[in-house]
Specification:
Blueprint (H helix, E strand, L loop, with lengths): L2 H28 L2 H13 L15 E2 L2 E2 L9 E10 L8 E4 L6 E7 L2 E9 L8 E3 L1 H7 L7 E7 L1
Amino acid sequence: MNLITFSCTIAAMRYSISILILCCLTACESIDLGSLKDRLITSEKNVAPVAIAQPDTKPEQIDGGDLLDRPTASSGPLGTTIVSLGTPTEPGMWLKTPLVANSRPGKVRWKGNNLAVTLIPIEGTSGAGSRISLSAMQALGMMLTELLEVQVFAD
């Protein structure tokens, strides 16, 4: 391609782009945005409200029975659970698990590493998963995006 052909091609592209921009601007001015806004407001008024169903169970009642009916072990193993990352902005070393009935000190064991944590009760059956703090996951060397099985002990 020689220099003259290249110059003509660039000039044609500039001309085409200019015409395209003018067409777009003309089309924008011909749209009646006021009627579009009125139609959106009218359609929002015609939407029926949605009722949110309330659960029939109290927070203390869960699939595994009453939260208050769970056995409270004096100390020792409580079982195993699958953990995922809990709320990352919540500080401290904690494990929210259905394995306990009330908050208490405990330990989490993963790959031979033990870590002292606060065990916090949550709803769910004893086989349901648990949530662990960001600090605890980092202290144990866990990958933050994985679901991992840990052993839980009460102190």
